[in-house]
Amino acid sequence: MALPLPPRKQSRNFTFTQTSNRVHKHTRIREYILYLVPTGNFYHVLENFFTKSKELFAAGAWNYSIPHITLVSFFKAHEDVDFNDTVRDLAEDGRYLNRPMALELYTSSNFMGFFVKEDDANVLKRIALKFVKEISESIISDTIDGLDHLIACFPYCASANENKTSSRCIPKSSRSTSLEPHVKNLHLTLAYQFPSTIYQNLIELVEQIDTSCANSWELRLYSRDPRLCTKQVHKIIYSHSSREHDELDLRVGDYVYINSDAAQNSIDGWVEAIAHNGGNVGFLPLNHTERTSEINVWTLNATVPLVQVSDNDISTDAIDGVIHNNTRENDYYIDENRFSQSTTMEENNLVRRGRRRIIILRHGERVDFAFGNAWTQFSFNDQNYVRHDLNMPTHLPPRMTEDWDRDSPLTTLGSFQCQQVGQSLKDFGVNFSKVYVSPSYRCVQTANEVLAAMENYDLQLNVEYGLFEWCLWYEELGLPNFLSEKELGVIFNVNEEYIPFLKREDLEEILKESLEDFYNRSLSTMRKILSSTTEEGDILIVAHAINLETCTRELVGKEQRSRAELRNLLMRIPYLACVSILETEDSRYQLIEPPCLTLTHNSCSKFDWRILDDN
């Protein structure tokens, strides 16, 4: 969708410092904060409240982060300090919260929220103090006075000390610190600084919140760049390709930083901004953005469930038409001791003894996300493809330009990503016997590059339409005009004799597919693939980010997620993300460590040499 650009008056000098365009490259100091965040049913109840309350606020006046209780306020530390183990060690204290958290509603003319009742608040304060004690040697001092006052707030401090030789929980050498655990009035904010005209409407929404399901929580340690914390965060809602050397390229879904007074002082609707990805500085049309929560650009450094719900406490709820429960599997975190080649080889032996292993990959980096939705406008001349950037494909097969708009190929980096993953799979002894791919061109490309890196040139690709992503996303514009198996067979080793379990015309009939129906379609496709595959060896499936969830969730005995849960999950699935499930002795499946190293890299924005030209 195109949006009219406001006319620019003239080029202007940058107001951000010259170091701003590299703020993400060499950041050494970060600010960290520890949250307790609800999950499961209570999270969805709160999400429903925030969705409805947003409609009451005037445009741009709604303040929203994520529902949370702050345990430790912002403190500074070097970015290379690893707090993962420290956060995980806090989880054992969650055993004292073996029931729904006791919350008390409080409302006033400018604040609404839940305060944690005393008994549970003491448990959370103990956790906060334990965290402060453990990391006090790692923080960077802000010359704040000592923490002697904490002792009065924590009568159980001596028990928190492992040696129990002193009532001083914080080492004397560490008392000049910026660490500040919350020791009073622990609360979860619902709304604040709202106009009096909507007070009654907010009260009615707040009183509908049921706290009896507040029995599932997790600790989250976030961090941010302190040099950017005073700026507003805006999300790109319309793409834009730069037309002048001082403009930013905009891609839908990306984030930028803007000075708080920039919008008010703009003379032509253009403002100066810093791109979150890459840190480039430039001008952009403000009407192509919308202000969003700062937390969207924070880094999630560690997360661990604090409260485990027993099987006897499981209850189901219907949200957005999807049945789910309030249990939640542990989030993955980096654990160097967990991943080992010997473990993977043991799983390889199980595969050779008839136990099937399915490996599901998301495709590599796609051109339209890297260069914006308008990439075809400057890349084709009378249907002839012209390469304008080293990260664009060297060549593309003949096809209508509008078809590439809807069915993007991989970037050069995307192809390289696939090769690296393929090599890693080969190094860990993976041997594929069957490959199934979504009909999207980028998925077929990904599978081809992976197999080439594994030197498996004979294995054919089975194009399965049942592996395509959620059809509801295509309700307005319709499905892409996929290349046929015959057309793909000219370029790739595609099995043109394969009969898919779901055909294109079947997808056309379910463009209003509900999330529950999408889960069911994915499960049905997976079961048909498994029942039709009798050969020994691994099965490779290449599809989309959302398929990593929907193709495995119910196979491993989990309930379907809600829209809100799924949306948050998708933000954490990068290109070439890999999941693996292994058949158990009773013919069920379980999630296991993927037999492939993870792939991590930084972004690299387009460079314009003209910035060095004073003229």
Automatic annotation (TrEMBL):
| InterPro entries referenced in this protein's UniProt entry, alphabetically | His_Pase_superF_clade-1 (IPR013078), His_PPase_superfam (IPR029033), Phosphatase_SH3-domain (IPR051710), SH3-like_dom_sf (IPR036028), SH3_domain (IPR001452)
Domain of life, per the record?
A: Eukaryota
Q: Any stretches that span the bilayer, and where are they?
A: none
User: Which parts of the sequence belong to the SH3 domain?
Assistant: 229-294
Q: Which Gene3D superfamilies match?
A: Phosphoglycerate mutase-like, SH3 Domains
Q: Does the keyword Signal apply?
A: no
Q: Name a GO molecular-function annotation.
A: phosphatase activity
Tell me the keywords, alphabetical order.
SH3 domain
The protein's name: SH3 domain-containing protein
Species whose genome carries this gene: Polypedilum vanderplanki
